[in-house]
Prior knowledge:
The protein is of the alpha+beta class. 51% of the residues lie in helices and 16% in strands. The longest helix has 37 residues, at 230-266. The radius of gyration is 21 Å and the shape is globular.
Amino acid sequence: MDFNLPADAEEMRVATRDAVDALLKLEPRYHETGEVPEQVESTLREMGFYGMAIPEAYGGMPVDHLTSVAVQLELARLPPQFWPFVRSAIGPGVHIIVDHGNEALKKKWLPEIASGRSRNCIAITEPHAGSDAARMLTSARREGDHYVLNGTKTFISNANHAHLITVLASTDRAAGKHGISAFLLDTTTPGFEVARTMPTMGWMDDSLCEITFTDCRIPVENLLGEEGRGLSYAMSGLNEGRLNVGCQALGPAQIALDETIEHARTRVTFGQALAEHQAIQHMIADMAMDLHAARMVLFEAVWRATRGEDARMKASMVKVICTEAACRIADKALQIFGGSGYCRGTIVERVYRDLRVLRIYEGASEIHRNMIARQLLA
């Protein structure tokens, strides 16, 4: 296993890092106004980040797994509010369109997503079907040249900003998980509604939503792939999504470590810098070891996926190890900062809040431990 990035991947990583460093200077303005500065979106579009998962034939700028991870580790140092639609554009919803959409759908929507003009999301979770997706109640009934969609989805990121949604719905309730299909919904379709937004403790924006479908008529051409295969398509995309979550965890963890090191060097207590206290030194050493170990797990999983190996168990390990390590790092950072780190508006406070959800979404840590154990004991 080569621990050096290929030249083109390293070039893109460095360019991304430079762009992120410039955009981070805009974070205070965001906290003052509550509005993401226009420079953020224009930079993300100009650098082609929206097209990283989309083929060139449809206007994308596709990159391999390793380059994608290297770039995301840099992007994830940004506040999550700065790049939510990039995360959607490289997530499982788009992968399902690329892999299973018909040519007409691809030509219509993929160039729009790749340019950043149209925004997408994926809708799986329901009020009574979270990790147990096979219990979903949203239904799609075939009527002539359409499917009629009815149901409710919850905890759907970016739904109130989306132009299209990859929706999973049951087309055969008796078949359980083998009766779930995937559809592409244009959000201008009559009967679609964002029922409410859901305020959260972190990621302080309005992007988490509950959505409803009331007799939404979807053309049969908007079925993605085959009937009954939707959940398997989603699970395949979620494996890569879990690697993405690993990046989303370790980017903020790196910021927390960097901020802590700088604080320890400059903060004076009892006549000496914090960095001179052995207890602080040990905490910082633990943070650095957690971060390095988690990065190695992430890159090994990506390396194996690039070689075509079955990376399902490794992806689950990445999800658990990276998110839990990042939370430990943020907790130590907050402890070292003390009262100032607990105050709203500091980077460490923001990172601490924002990281917590990563142990829940894209499969809670406990669910992934179950999946890992099942594969080991099979």
